[in-house]
């Protein structure tokens, strides 16, 4: 039944794709091979997503966070995708709002502005005032968007299952990417989840040793009014950071104020990424507001990322390896970070890093874009068939957006310059944690456990060695080919020895034989030896391995 309902949508998608000249699809329809499909050009792919509508724009935005899957040209083009949809009429939005409220709308709000202040593919935002006078922002889900998303994600998963049967689909786990996209979209439909993200980020940013938490604002959630389709947040009065006017106040010049704000944002995100492990993953310029009281607000916490402690440690060391231009260490850290790593040639991986980092030799940190370098790290991993966790793409995109937004706001700033003074503190925190005594005691317990278990493990190993029950399983690449070559060589050597023995035997018989019978036997042996020797020479010549 559901498949029947999506037939018209399938027809629309096919029409858009074919109209934009996707040669792969045309080839597939005319009997071409699907084993090595080619993507359309970046500009064409972006146009396809735009014409297919909001869900596919979201898909393009997700793909723009995966430089481990797509080349830089695609990432750059897809990064410009923005949901541009007309707002829903107030009459339709009001129906959803009344359905979500537990009380009549007139008893909850003293005023609701019917004109939206922002409209997206999932929801639109209206300004309102509670009965007690507090101003709030209402994020209200577009009516029927859940049905549209269910239909389109069903089709996307079906297409992913087809592509998954090809080599490229298995190499890049296209089915896993489709599942990740479906989950991300469904999460966006649950505003309670977004509210919990907002609350957690607000709590994490309330304390810091690197910046003044009073200067950074994340809106408060009104939980008593928030539902799956309605998010009610504190209203923050200000303007987008990029268009804000800064005048000289308290002896601080506009340029100095910009530098202070940039350092504040950098340090807040460094804490999110490398300390908290929970970060706002969409720091584009529109999500930073400069408030009338001089503080900075971080808005729209619907897209977040997570980093486990191990990934945080590796990424922190990766920053140091990039600063030190250490290609060997970059290689080791990439392999540690990988979900699956089977590079065809480990030396090639290190050479690729060496070649990439060589471009930045003799450059000051202020001239190096960390986001650009890390994108290149991910691309090198992709080219060497190393699959990294999906959150690495989101991490890279977050850093790129943060660095890009900051450089628009303050062109002289550089992320690596801001991270460098914090490196010692970062390593100390990762080594000792927030509670050094607790970390020391835990390490002592680990050492005690190791000291108690080691003698027993050594005893077991020695028992297995002396009882000849220890087996070694070695896997050597291309060993089968080497074994076959050795077998052929051994067979030819044995064959040569047999031929030589026949010739020697025939010679002995010929020299000592006086009768005609011995003469016949000698000639027969010489004939057989000559034939076998000629066959061996022809075999060697045909193998092409006579040349040195």
Automatic annotation (TrEMBL):
SUPFAM superfamilies: Protein kinase-like (PK-like). Residues 81-333 form the ABC1 atypical kinase-like domain. GO terms for molecular function: kinase activity. Pfam families: ABC1. Keywords: Kinase, Membrane, Transferase, Transmembrane, Transmembrane helix. The keyword Transferase applies. The keyword Transmembrane helix applies. The chain crosses the membrane at residues 493-512, 518-541. PANTHER family: CHAPERONE-ACTIVITY OF BC1 COMPLEX CABC1 -RELATED, PROTEIN ACTIVITY OF BC1 COMPLEX KINASE 7, CHLOROPLASTIC. Belongs to the protein kinase superfamily. ADCK protein kinase family. This is ABC1 kinase family protein.
């Amino acid at each position: 039944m559901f498949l029947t309902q999506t037939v018209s949508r399938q027809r629309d998608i096919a029409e858009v794709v074919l109209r934009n000249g996707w040669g792969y699809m045309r080839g597939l329809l005319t009997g071409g091979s699907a084993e090595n499909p080619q993507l359309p050009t970046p500009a064409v792919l972006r146009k396809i997503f735009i014409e297919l509508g909001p869900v596919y724009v979201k898909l393009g935005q997700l793909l723009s966070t995966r430089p481990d899957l797509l080349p830089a040209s695609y990432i750059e083009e897809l990064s410009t995708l923005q949901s541009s949809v007309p707002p829903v009429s107030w009459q339709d939005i009001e129906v959803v709002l009344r359905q979500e409220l537990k009380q009549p709308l007139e008893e909850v709000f003293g005023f609701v502005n019917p004109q939206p202040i922002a409209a997206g593919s999932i929801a639109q935002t209206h300004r309102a005032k509670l009965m007690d006078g507090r101003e709030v922002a209402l994020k209200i889900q577009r009516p029927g968007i859940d049905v549209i998303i269910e239909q389109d994600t069903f089709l996307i998963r079906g297409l992913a299952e087809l592509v998954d049967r090809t080599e490229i689909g298995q190499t890049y786990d296209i089915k896993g990417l489709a599942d990740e996209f479906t989950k991300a979209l469904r999460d966006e439909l649950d505003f309670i989840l977004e509210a919990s993200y907002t609350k957690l980020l607000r709590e994490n940013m309330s304390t810091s040793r690197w910046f003044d938490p009073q200067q950074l604002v994340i809106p408060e959630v009104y939980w008593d009014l928030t539902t799956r389709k309605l998010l009610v947040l504190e209203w923050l009065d200000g303007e987008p950071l990029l268009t804000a006017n800064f005048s000289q106040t308290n002896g601080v010049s506009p340029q100095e104020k910009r530098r202070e704000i940039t350092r504040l944002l950098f340090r807040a995100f460094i804490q999110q990424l490398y300390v908290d492990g929970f970060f706002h993953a969409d720091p584009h310029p529109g999500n930073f507001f400069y408030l009338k009281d001089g503080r900075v607000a971080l808005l729209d916490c619907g897209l977040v990322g997570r980093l486990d402690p191990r990934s945080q440690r590796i990424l922190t060391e990766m920053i140091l390896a990039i600063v030190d231009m250490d290609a060997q260490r970059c290689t080791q850290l990439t392999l540690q970070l990988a979900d699956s790593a089977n590079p065809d040639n480990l030396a090639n991986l290190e050479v690729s890093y060496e070649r990439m980092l060589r471009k930045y030799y003799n450059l000051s940190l202020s001239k190096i874009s960390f986001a650009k370098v890390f994108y290149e790290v991910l691309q090198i991993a992709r080219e060497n068939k190393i699959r990294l966790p999906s959150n690495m793409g989101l991490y890279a995109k977050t850093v790129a957006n943060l660095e890009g937004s900051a450089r628009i706001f303050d062109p002289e700033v550089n992320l690596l310059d801001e991270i460098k003074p914090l490196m010692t503190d970062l390593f100390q925190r990762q080594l000792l944690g927030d509670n050094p005594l607790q970390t020391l005691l835990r390490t002592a317990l680990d050492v005690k456990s190791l000291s108690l278990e080691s003698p027993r493990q050594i005893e077991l190993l020695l028992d297995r060695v002396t009882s000849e029950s220890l087996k070694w399983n070695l896997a050597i690449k291309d060993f089968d080919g080497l074994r076959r070559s050795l077998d052929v060589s051994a067979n030819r050597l044995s064959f040569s020895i047999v031929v030589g023995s026949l010739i020697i035997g025939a010679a002995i018989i010929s020299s000592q034989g006086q009768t005609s019978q011995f003469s016949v036997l000698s000639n027969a042996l010489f004939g057989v030896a000559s034939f076998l020797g000629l066959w061996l020479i022809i075999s060697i010549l045909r193998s092409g391995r006579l040349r040195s």
